[in-house]
Amino acid sequence: MKKSSAIIMAVTVGVVVCVVTCLLTIVIFFDQRGGGNDSLSLKEFSELGKVIDQYYLYDYDIDEVQTAGLKAMVASLDDPYTVYYTKEEYEAFNQSSAGEYEGLGMMISLDKDTGGAVIVKFFDGSSALEEGVMVGDTIISVDGLDVREKTLEEISTLCLGEGGTFVTLGVKRGDEEYTFELERRAITVDMLTYEVMDDNIGYIHILQFGGNATVLFAKAMGEFADLGVAGVVIDLRDNPGGYLHVVVEMLDMVLPEGIIVYTEDKYGNRETEFSDEANIDMSFTMLVNGNTASASEIFAGAMQDYDYCEVVGTTTYGKGVVQAVLPMEETGGGVKITTSEYFTPDGRSINGNGIEPDFYLEYDDSGQDNQLDKAIEVLQKSIEQQ
Q1: How many Cα atoms sit within 13 Å of 186 on the Cβ side?
Q2: Which of these is catalytic: 141, 275, 294, 296?
Q3: Which residue in the list 127, 156, 319, 336 is annotated as catalytic?
Q4: What pLDDT is recorded for position 2?
Q5: For the segment 17-52, what is each residue's pLDDT rounded down to a tens digit?
Q6: pLDDT one-digit tens code per residue, 210-223
Q7: What is the DSSP string of 288-347?
Q8: Please, which pLDDT band fits residue 256 given cuts at 50, 70 and 90?
Q9: What is the chain's mean pLDDT, rounded?
Q10: Neighbour-count burial of 95, counting CB atoms closer than 10 A to its CB (0-12 exposed, 13-18 middle, 19+ buried)
């Protein structure tokens, strides 16, 4: 056999094997869903692999083919919250959830109206903040790659990397576009900050329900109690959510005995999370906005249902479904998959609806935080009525 023929045969076999491996999951999935004669079999995928290998004009990366197949399978579910992660994306997700990573030190969120990745916050040590990137900027490119159709996870992964390396970030600000050369740095994020403000009012800003949020929440409430703080403003603005068990742990500290949240899967199975009778006797108000999502809405909805606080701000995002994050051993990646819908203690469905504030107030960007001022005003009236 000629050397060239052997190479062609080896490539053909390799492509077919990889394509089959990539798409085997799809076949198994449809088999488990009860697919019958109308379901595709391995034969069709194998045939397609041979056609691509024999006739396709251009070179291609088989790893990219595999990844595209897995991502396409998940994307076909038409669920914006179900995502397949490559190995790099999965590692980035775990790092950001833990609160320690090497990157640009900024939090991004999906704009509900435009679908763009918008910068909503900077962390201490952020090179992006130092170089002039601003809250409200929409990320349009990373190292020259157009990312306007990329997921938040894909964009985050591109921004992460070894400390001391640089990345070129393109953003859109209004009608103008800007480019910044930014250094990746080691970033440590406290998922919660707190302080005592004027008039003995406590303030807690929960960035995300993960990392050290539970520990810091308990610490804050303990210090507030020792100081005799009369009431607390809890700020959930721009909080994208986090882990269900974390928000349950935090609500268990605050609420009286009863239901915190319950979830239902597609089979009607219900799982209910309860709080015990130990609770914190203190007045609260809460701040929310359109980027308050998922676990944050569980928190706000439960507090609202128990009449433990009044909510100030704008209607929340409306993400009332729960995802499980599962590793994919074969690829080293993972999948975040929607498994159930959650309901507030009173049975309210948040999905597509959001939490309606008791006091609707748009943010005034003139320099004074009018929403926080209103939350303090509402809290002081609540304290006076006790």
Answers
A1: 0
A2: 294
A3: 319
A4: 34
A5: 333 344 444 444 444 444 445 555 567 777 887 888
A6: 989 999 999 999 99
A7: E-TT--THHHHHHHHHHHTT-EEEEES------EEEEEEEETTTTEEEEEEEEEEE-TT-
A8: very high
A9: 86
A10: middle
Contact at 8 Å (CB) between 305 and 311?
no
Query: How many residues make up the chain in this entry?
Result: 386
pLDDT of residue 189: 84
Cβ within 8 Å of residue 363, ≥6 positions away = 289, 313, 314, 369, 370, 371
Sheet holding 359-360, edge to edge: 192-197, 201-206, 231-235, 283-288, 309-313, 359-360
b/e string for 113-133 if b means 16 or more Cβ within 10 A? eeebbbbbbbbeebbbbeeeb
Tokens of 28: 């198994």
For residue 279, give both structure tokens.
């609770």
pTM: 0.75
319 is catalytic: yes
C-alpha atoms less than 13 angstroms from C-alpha of 127 in its C-beta half-sphere = 20
Confidence of residue 156 (pLDDT cuts 50, 70, 90): confident
The Cα–Cα gap between 143 and 243 comes to 31
∠ at Cα 257 (278, 191), nearest 5°?
A: 65
Query: What percent helix, strand, coil does the chain show, rounded to 5?
Result: 35, 30, 35
d(CA 286, CA 304): 9
172 catalytic, yes or no? no
CA-wise closest residue to 94 among 42, 138, 153: 153
DSSP code string of 37-66: TTS--HHHHHHHHHHHHHH--S---HHHHH
Residues 6+ positions from 20 with CB-CB distance below 8 Å? 42, 45, 46, 49
The dihedral through the CA atoms of 298, 253, 384, 205 has a sign that is negative
Give tens-digit pLDDT for 110-150. Answer: 887 888 999 988 988 999 999 999 999 999 999 999 999 88
CA distance 297 to 366: 27
